[in-house]
Amino acid sequence: MSAIKAPAAPLLSELKGVGPALCAKLARLNLFNIPDLLFHLPLRYQDRSQIKTVAQLRVGEEALIEVQVVQAEVVRRRRAMLLCRVKDPTGELLLRFFHFSSGQLKQFYSGQRLRCFGEVKLSGGQLEMVHPEYRLQSSNGTGLESALTPLYPATEGVSQTQLRRLMQQALLWLEQQGAMELPDYLPAALLSSLALPSLQAALLFLHRPPVETDLVLLMSPELPARQRLVIEELLAHHLSLTALRMSAQQQKAPILKAEGHLFESFISSLAFTLTRAQQRVIAELRTDLALSRPMLRLLQGDVGSGKTVVAVAVALLAIELGYQVALMAPTELLAEQHAKNCRAWLQPLGLKVAFVSGRLGLKARREAEEQIVSGEVSLVVGTHALFQAAVQFSRLALTIVDEQHRFGVHQRLALRQKGVHNGRYPHQLIMTATPIPRTLAMTAYADLDCSIIDELPSGRTPVTTVAISEARRDEVMARVAQACLQGRQVYWVCTLIEESELLQCQAAEAIAEYLREALLGCRIGLIHGRMKAKEKSELMAQFKAAELDLLVATTVIEVGVDVPNASLMIIENAERLGLSQLHQLRGRVGRGAVASSCLLLYKAPLSQAARARLAVMRATNDGFEIAEEDLRLRGPGEVLGTRQTGLVEFMIADLQRDAALLPEIKRLAELMRADFPDAVQPLIQRWMRGTERYGSV
Ligand code: ADP
Ligand code: MG
Description:
By secondary structure, the protein is an alpha/beta fold. The chain has 24 helices and 23 strands. Strands 2, 3, 4, 5, 6, 7, 8 and 9 form an eight-stranded mixed β-sheet that branches. The protein has a seven-stranded parallel β-sheet with strand order 13-14-12-15-16-11-17, sandwiched between helices. Strands 18-23-22-19-21-20 form a six-stranded parallel β-sheet, with helices on both faces. α4 packs antiparallel against α6 and α22 crosses α23. The longest helix is centred in the middle third of the chain and has 27 residues. The protein is globular and about 90 Å long. The C terminus is likely disordered. Adenosine-5'-diphosphate (ADP) binds next to α11.
């Protein structure tokens, strides 16, 4: 087979004006070479190609206007601002500046002509622009842009202007050498059958859209130029996962056909009986483990459906045959909780459990490592630290990864690689509490088989959910006070939209302070991401032991934490959270026999989308239903830029937004493999280059 060889891509340092300093900054955007830059698509566009009259302006749009100053003045409200009234022959508008200099005030003398670009707002019945970009115009102004202006994802120290200048050079390269250097791996016949543009045409269009392009169409996922790239990326991803799967099926694994006496003792030691769904899944896993090729299976089950018990039960099948099992969790807190539970379950069976985490002291660490390599330990529980070279297993036969969405495909491969022993690969079980609609699972996990626990243990009462405006915080406080009096435990979750952990922690501290004053006699704890792992687990232990009535928390409690007596949850800023996150959070309550409730606090007014999300949360507790609704609500037509799945990092595609394309992708992948096998490898390489860079497979 004569595979097509991908040309080496020219580095960004070959562009004019790019020195080592800029290179380093561009690397932060994952931009290393010219093709990287070309695949760095605009977030949105501005139309600076035509001047609008004031009469044409619509609230909410960004527009370029040419006006004359009527009058400018500095006014002092709560803070000083510069107000400048301007007009054109069709009407008047206000420019508002909060940051300004006295020089600016002087510039804005009556009659001065300005060209301004900004978003049109309505304030007190009057049109205005806040901090528009503006330029003083002398006699007969400067030229206009001939294409729509792209706005790129940027980073500190790299401006839009710089990015646009670099992109101009990259586009020139594309026009001159693209056909050779950036080949189109999608066969022409296939493109024309789908009515999609070539790679080169698509990139040129997206970076430099003709002025007459409709801005709404330009942002839509149905835009052919964008769809072509999305399809290519999804296809590459699908092909790479199926290739992984096919090669995994050629591998050998230890055959784990255990009699099951440890397994039986464990099951009979439990205070409950397994649900039918748990039993079914255990049977599926047992069948896989008894084969001579490695199991690669995803276990989906709603929060609280009892995945851990299932995992431990099958782990015992490997342990009985003298093998080791690794259980990996995404956070310290969860790993510790698992370690504690596993010790309680396994020690009575005479088995040893080790705990490995990055925060462990050196001595404890070495000790654990020695016990693992000697084979003394049967089950190793830990965080990412399990990847580290110092952790060597003696006979690893099964790796279990909990809450998979935080780990990437390549991390889970790395863990598999660790356990290769005498040419045999360990089996792998991936567990996730984020239900994924079938269509998405097919693509996100094309390399895995799927099992589902679709039943909750009996005796659980569904969580009652209500949405309450922040304005009614007093009523919420009364409910919390009453719950505490009744000995029920409460989570108060502080969430912020900002990505800053610091801000989130400060908000949580402020809330905790406020609650301590308002709810005297109620024992309140605070847990957030900036605390030491030890402090966090101590607090969780206190809460679990009911030494605290109320726990104020940031989203660190998101996954897996188990305190059955907690039966009331307040979620702040609920309107800003996605459905899957809300569902994950809510899953912390409703784990015991007491009826639980969840209060979603929101700030009015609600957007239509937020209203719909809250309605879904009130209507159902079923994770799969919520996932489907999420898909429907955010489905095709959703604006670009919201990526919440966190399943896979795509550059351009978005599994949820582009879900409708997935069945087509599957068909195209089969077609590519059958009819154009030479293009498969280069295509995978083009889109998986980010992961190769971190070199893990
Ligand atoms: P998940 O990881 O799926 O969210 P866990 O495994 O943490 O759920 O289980 C949640 C709680 O339910 C734990 O306290 C566990 O011991 C308990 N549990 C698991 N299976 C059952 C069952 N069949 N009946 C009753 N309780 C169960
Ligand atoms: Mg769990």
